[in-house]
């Protein structure tokens, strides 16, 4: 008998380590266990929470936790009957679920050791615990399919919350993506005012440390995209937990974490997470198997990432090049631009794939490729020609807005797609009513910058249509937009009367000279004034503009040293040419040469005063860079074409010398090259004799 009593008391002490005093666990609708005061016949033996301080012990003990109920089983004096209910499954530390069948467990301590005895007890439907049923877990996909609004998701959460809470946020973001912008704003207001929203946020913060890492990242991404302010306790808490658990990140989580960082605004916690992300990528880069994940990681790594990490990612991408799909090749341009890494090998290989699969390429992809080429300063003439030819071949199905956007990107790259620009001119002439003010400004800027209209057969008709379209908006156009449009007309050597008359009004000029962008406006007004004086504008020549002194900083005067040396050798000394010549209207030329009208010989500057002005031809030698021409051609861009036109009006013959070509030539070849530029064809043999004599 004493042995039985001792065994029972030993069992009792074991129960006391597991069961809270005067309280038991009740399963609330939120899926969390909270203490609940029960009837006095509940025999509670000790304070559970004070003993369970370690999270690991807490999880372990709850794998076989016991909840005790009286009036069932055996009875001893002074001690209520105890039923031990075994918990079949524990999803997380503060959550308990029950089945209808539970085990009555007693432990008998005898001389033979420990003995476990199981008594099965069928709990009646009237039992308090079984009245609270286990909520059915619902996925975010099912939630997004069954609910039509963010409030519907929160209502579902209120009825029967399930773990993890990330499913609710993910479902709300999935629904929000289907809504228009106005609907999103309205739904967000309802979401913030919903009574269950704060409760869901609290659940999310409590579950952050115990839910799977991928669900933590999904929820953080959804929360940010839903527009919940980043400085809130919810977002900052999730950021900190994400930092602490970053070592749990696998390949899939790397992709999600990349999207999270890309969606968030800079702050201290985001910066710390970004640094941890880079360290993690540096460690796991060779383990990444999925090409899409690799590209997402590369895009998120940041422009300021260490160059060693960028090169490591580049090498990984080169290794996977054979596995690139067409979409991977198309996206590679945007990825490299996002990390500001110009890998010519990757770009060249991806360009070939893009050209081979150009048919059916979406406009968004083409625009992203061109924008990335601009950011990376990557100029691939074959790629640009292929893209332009494809747009021209499918021109009829393209909207005007997208064609203009592509042309603007081509202009930024310095590329002139002749066929595409001709087609657009034809459409504009046929349908001028389709133009709005924004389109007019874009078209004028693109065509004037690329100097395209100079060779077109329908040049005058096109310019008249554009001038007429601009005139229709004169009542509403701003002064700066009007100046931009007129400036573009000046580059194209066209001067429509109505826009010019409105621009030259005193109040418009005064507004331009007092605006925030005054320097740019003054520069354009000086060019306008120069065009009125030097170009063929008889009906506008009497207009005098009162402009402030042009303060534009001229570039440092360093004429090409090799060209100066070649001219000295070719002409017989520096007395036959002048360097760094400044002309009226803020024009500057690198070298000036005086030749006779037949271009048979170069005249020394000392003999110019005695010679008749009619017998002298002034030649302006301009040393120009690649950017002064359209890409891959010798076609001068708008400003150079206007400068050449104005130098001709000032009495100069213009000689263009390409810096990059001159740098490649040996001295003898350079002399021959300049000789053909300066002398006429008939005078070349004579010039050769003079050169040999010198």
Report on the structure:
With 694 residues, the protein is an alpha+beta fold. Helices cover 52% and strands 10% of the residues. The chain has 31 helices and 10 strands. The chain has a 4-stranded mixed β-sheet with strand order 7-8-9-10. Strands 1-2 form a two-stranded antiparallel ribbon. Helix 4 crosses helix 6, helix 15 runs parallel beside helix 17 and helix 20 packs across helix 22. The N and C termini lie far apart (134 Å). The C terminus is likely disordered. This is FAST kinase domains 2. One of its GO terms (molecular function) is RNA binding. It is found in: Mitochondrion.
Main sheet, how many strands, which sense, barrel?
4 strands, mixed
Strand order in space, largest sheet:
7-8-9-10
Q: What is the beta-strand fraction?
A: 5-15%
The radius of gyration is: 40 Å
Average residue-wise pLDDT:
78
Structural class: alpha+beta
Keywords:
alpha+beta
């Amino acid at each position: 008998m004493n042995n039985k009593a001792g065994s029972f008391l030993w069992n009792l002490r074991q129960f006391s380590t597991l069961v809270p005093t005067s309280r038991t666990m009740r399963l609330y609708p939120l899926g969390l266990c909270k203490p609940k005061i029960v009837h006095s016949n509940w025999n509670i033996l000790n304070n559970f929470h004070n003993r369970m301080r370690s999270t690991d012990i807490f999880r372990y003990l709850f794998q076989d936790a016991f909840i005790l109920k009286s009036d069932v089983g055996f009875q001893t004096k002074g001690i209520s009957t105890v039923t031990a209910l075994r918990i079949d499954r524990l999803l997380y530390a503060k959550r308990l679920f029950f089945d209808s069948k539970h085990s009555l467990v007693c432990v008998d301590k005898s001389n033979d050791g420990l003995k476990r005895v199981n008594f099965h007890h069928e709990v009646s439907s009237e039992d308090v615990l079984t009245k609270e049923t286990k909520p059915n877990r619902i996925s975010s996909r099912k939630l997004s399919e069954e609910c039509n609004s963010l409030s519907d998701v929160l209502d579902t959460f209120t009825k029967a919350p399930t773990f993890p809470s990330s499913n609710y946020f993910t479902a709300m973001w999935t629904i929000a993506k289907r809504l228009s912008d106005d609907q999103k704003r309205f739904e967000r207001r309802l979401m913030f005012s919903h009574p269950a929203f704060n409760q869901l946020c609290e659940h999310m913060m409590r579950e952050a440390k115990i839910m799977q890492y991928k669900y933590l990242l999904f929820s953080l991404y959804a929360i940010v995209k839903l527009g919940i302010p980043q400085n809130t306790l919810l977002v900052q808490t999730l950021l900190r937990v994400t930092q602490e658990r970053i070592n749990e990140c696998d390949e899939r989580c790397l992709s999600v974490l990349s999207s999270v960082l890309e969606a968030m605004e800079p702050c201290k916690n985001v910066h710390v997470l970004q640094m941890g992300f880079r360290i993690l990528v540096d460690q796991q880069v060779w383990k990444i198997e999925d090409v899409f994940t690799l590209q997402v990681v590369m895009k998120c790594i940041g422009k300021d990432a260490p160059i060693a990490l960028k090169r490591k990612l580049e090498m990984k991408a080169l290794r996977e090049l054979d596995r690139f799909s067409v979409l991977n090749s198309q996206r590679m341009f945007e990825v490299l631009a996002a990390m500001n890494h110009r890998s010519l090998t990757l770009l060249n290989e991806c360009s070939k794939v893009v050209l081979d699969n150009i048919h059916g390429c979406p406009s968004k992809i083409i625009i992203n490729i061109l924008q990335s080429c601009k950011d990376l300063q990557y100029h691939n003439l074959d790629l640009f020609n292929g893209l332009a030819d494809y747009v021209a071949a499918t021109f009829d199905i393209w909207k005007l807005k997208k064609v203009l956007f592509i042309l603007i990107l081509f202009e930024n790259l310095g590329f002139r797609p002749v066929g595409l620009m001709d087609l657009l001119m034809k459409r504009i002439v046929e349908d001028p009513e389709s133009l709005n003010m924004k389109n007019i400004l874009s078209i004028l800027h693109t065509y004037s910058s690329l100097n395209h209209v100079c060779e077109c057969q329908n040049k005058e008709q096109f310019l008249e249509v554009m001038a007429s379209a601009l005139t229709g908006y004169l009542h509403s156009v701003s002064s700066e937009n009007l100046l931009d449009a007129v400036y573009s007309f000046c580059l194209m050597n066209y001067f429509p009367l109505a826009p010019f008359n409105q621009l030259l009004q005193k109040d418009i000029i005064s507004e331009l000279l007092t605006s925030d962008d005054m320097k740019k406006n003054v520069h354009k007004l000086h060019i306008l004034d120069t065009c009125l004086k030097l170009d063929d504008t008889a009906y506008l020549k009497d207009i005098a503009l009162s402009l402030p002194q042009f303060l534009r900083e001229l570039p440092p005067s360093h004429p090409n040293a090799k060209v100066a040396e070649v001219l000295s050798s070719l002409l017989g000394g520096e007395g036959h040419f002048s360097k760094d010549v400044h002309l009226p209207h803020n024009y500057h030329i690198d070298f000036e040469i005086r030749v006779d009208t037949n271009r048979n010989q170069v005249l020394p500057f000392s003999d110019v005063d005695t010679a008749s002005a009619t017998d002298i031809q002034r030649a302006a030698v301009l040393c120009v860079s690649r950017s002064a021409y359209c890409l891959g051609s010798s076609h001068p861009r708008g400003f150079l074409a206007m400068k050449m036109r104005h130098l001709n009006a000032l009495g100069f013959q213009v000689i263009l010398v390409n810096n990059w070509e001159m740098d490649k030539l040996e001295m003898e070849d350079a002399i021959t090259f300049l000789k053909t530029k300066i002398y006429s064809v008939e005078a070349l043999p004579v010039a050769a004799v003079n050169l040999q004599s010198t």
